[in-house]
Each structure stands twice: as C-alpha cells, then as structure tokens.
Amino acid sequence: MFNFFKKATKTFWPISEYAENWSILTEKPNPTIIRVNLGYKDAIGHPDYPVKMGIAVPVDVHDDAIMDVKSEIEEILNDILLKNDNGAVVAIINGLEGQKFFEFLSYTKKEGVDFAKIHQILKITKYRCTLKPTSNG
Fold this sequence. Notes:
Alpha-Beta Plaits
C-alpha cells in the first residue's frame, strides 16, 4: 500500500561540484565572526566526507599579517582537499576576545587524506597549528 514513512534517498555529488556561497555570521556573547560556506548545506551528511577536521591557530591580534596567514592556509587547504575531491573547508571561525584564535573547519574523506602532511605543511607559518581530525560517524 502507501509507504508514508519511507526514508527519502538523498543524492550527493563530489564536493567540488557544490557551488561556493560564503556568508558571515556573528556571535555576540563571546565575540566571534564565522565565515561559513552555505553552498555545502546540501552536502550535509555526505557519506564520502565523514571526518571533521579542525585546524586552530591561536593569535595575539587579528591584524593584516594574520589575514595573510589565514589566506595562505585557506589556499593550502583548498589545494590539498577541494582540488582532489578529498574534502572542503566549510567554515572559518575567528575568536576576537579572550583567547584569540582562528579555526578552519573542514569535512574530509576517511581515506586518501594525508593529515600528517597537512600538519607538516602548515607548520611553515610562525603560528602554532593544532590539527585534530575526528570521525563524526
């Protein structure tokens, strides 16, 4: 008969096929600016990208030099992840008060991503990087 409770099947594409659509969100209690790529909203739950990777960098101030570092890291991550459909940066978080930081949040494949190499490449900056891949599945 009718199957009203049948779970809909969602179709996913390779991550590079989702259009970028960056938006800015602000958080008031702990001043934070979040740049999030809303273009990936239809990729939420993508079975090929189950690992949440966060790269956090503590900073003293958010100035032009830090903006250059953030741009460099974003470019490196896009080269490593997006160009090979290994994952994507979905958000960049900037903590503005207290312990200041910026963090890149990405979702990646479980296999084929060389996390040690990413960490090694990012150590070239004068800022300390913390790389913590965690599976969300």
